[in-house]
Design goal:
The protein is built from 13 helices and 19 strands. The protein is α/β, with parallel strands linked by helices. Bound molecules: N-(aminocarbonyl)-beta-alanine and zinc ion (ZN) (2 copies).
């Protein structure tokens, strides 16, 4: 099927313009004015996008689907997770293929291909999370690059995945040889353990203890340390899920001294605060994620950093568990599986509460959700822009359409919605994936159209 998306306001990282888009054979063929008045239009289906915003499909570079963690498995696998993603306008997820200790990187990548293959409703790619650094892992970085898994992830916390500072230094140095970088989860693990021991000694075992054991300084210290290590390794790094003023300040100090540091944040750190952990009836557990949400002053700081282009990407850290799974920690908050769903709501939340409230521009939204992740993660201009030759991945937002976020309406395989009751003004209307209309009027009409995207070396912006 050939489509012309007519008369929409096309958003790029630089500008907005009104034009028509011809989609054919999975690709964007033309972006021109008045295509519907030319012979090309004769056998094309016309989609009227007048008054709507036409974005390059969103990229969520931070999801955890079908991840075994904390003695359970995430509620969303690749089937439910990518259905939720695509109705939310995300046409590519970059999930964390995770090496378990004792496994090789090749085994981890093969495991993740098996989890995802044939089940995805949006395109998918993998970062490789290295949990066991050894000579074989070092050698297999070349294989990962060859396979199109061209960016990496390291954890400074979580016993199953943590690397020590020396190992992190070695990995970052090795990645430099391949012109690539890692995203790093920054929290000071021993300090968290000490704080947890104090809370347990006092019998403070509820979810409200979670943020108190992982305060902003635990995150900021780890970021500082990571940036010292990255400087020694002479390689850029990405600080994933940045939550706080203290965290951003560490990044800004390093940048001021000439270091290249990328920052990612997520909607929960912009729109939710630490009061959620004190919700009654163990509902605070639904919000337990690491690092935790902070104070409203931190949210303000992050929004300002977005405005000043000091944060490069907004992803979700989608890592979902049902309320039943969260009950694993009913008597001990440290046993609550960490993470929240988010892949479905990011685009609409960022449009409504970012663009709609004048905190970011349409162009910034495009850069944060599409263009910059495509560039940093080595798939631009195949993804991340609306131009001839790019994949036919397009997300159309209707700024006049409204809704309220409700758990019972969502595609995510979870029985609660972290943003329950949030009003949306500017809904995802239609989504094209590889030139096919897969979401119409906000509903998934064609499932299972996703494919693996083999990525190239990143653009080290
Ligand atoms: O609590 C979270 N964020 N869980 C997902 C794993 C991670 O830390 O990214
Ligand atoms: Zn993390
Ligand atoms: Zn994560």
């Amino acid at each position: 099927m050939k489509y012309i998306i007519k008369n929409g306001t096309i958003v790029s990282g630089k500008e907005t313009k009104t034009a028509d888009i011809l989609l054919e054979d999975g690709m964007i063929e033309k972006v021109e004015e008045n295509l519907t008045n030319t012979p090309i239009a004769i056998d094309a289906k016309i989609i009227d996008a007048s008054g709507k915003y036409v974005f390059p499909g969103f990229i969520d570079a931070h999801t955890h689907f079908d991840l075994e963690v904390s003695g359970t498995v995430t509620a969303d696998d690749f089937e439910t997770g990518t259905k939720a993603a695509i109705v939310g306008g995300t046409t590519l997820v970059i999930d964390f293929a995770t090496q378990n200790k004792g496994e090789t990187l090749k085994e981890a990548s093969s495991n993740w291909h098996k989890k995802a293959e044939g089940r995805c409703s949006c395109d998918y790619a993998f970062h490789m999370a290295i949990s066991d650094w050894n000579q074989e892992a070092r050698r297999q970085i070349a294989d990962m690059m060859e396979e199109g898994i061209t960016t990496f992830k390291l954890y400074m916390t979580y016993p199953a995945m943590i690397l020590n500072d020396g190992e992190i230094y070695e990995v970052l140095k090795e990645l430099k040889k391949y012109g690539t970088f890692a995203g790093v989860h920054c929290e000071n693990a021993p300090l968290i353990d000490a704080f947890i021991a104090e809370k347990k000694a006092k019998g403070h075992l509820g979810p409200d203890s979670h943020p108190l054991c992982r305060p902003p300084q635990v995150e900021a210290e780890a970021i500082h340390r990571l940036l010292v290590i990255a400087k020694e390794a002479d390689n850029p790094v990405m600080v994933v899920h940045t939550t706080s003023k203290a965290a951003m300040e560490e990044i800004e100090i390093a940048r001021a001294k000439g270091q290249k540091v990328y920052a990612e944040t997520c909607p929960q750190y912009l729109l939710l605060d630490d009061s959620y952990f004190s919700l009654p009836d163990f509902k605070g557990a639904n919000y337990v994620c690491s690092p935790p949400m902070r104070k409203s002053a931190d949210q303000d700081y992050l929004w300002e950093a977005l405005k000043l282009d000091e944060i490069q990407t907004i992803s979700t850290d989608h890592c979902s568990f049902t309320t039943e799974q969260k009950k694993m920690g009913i008597h001990d908050f440290t046993k609550i599986p960490n993470g929240m769903p988010g892949v479905e709501t990011r685009g609409e939340l960022m449009y409504t509460y970012g663009v709609g409230q004048g905190k970011i521009t349409l162009e910034q939204m495009c850069r944060l959700l599409s263009e910059t992740p495509a560039r940093l993660y080595g798939c631009y201009p195949q993804k991340g822009c609306i131009a001839p030759g790019s994949d036919g991945d397009i997300t159309i937002i209707d700024p006049h359409k409204t809704k309220t976020i409700r758990a019972e309406k969502q595609m995510q395989n979870v029985d609660y919605a972290p943003f329950e009751g949030f009003e949306i003004k500017g809904c995802v209307d239609s989504v094209f994936l590889g030139g096919k209309l897969v979401v119409e009027d906000g509903k998934l009409v064609k499932a299972n159209q996703g494919r693996f995207i083999s990525r190239r070396q990143p653009e080290l912006l």
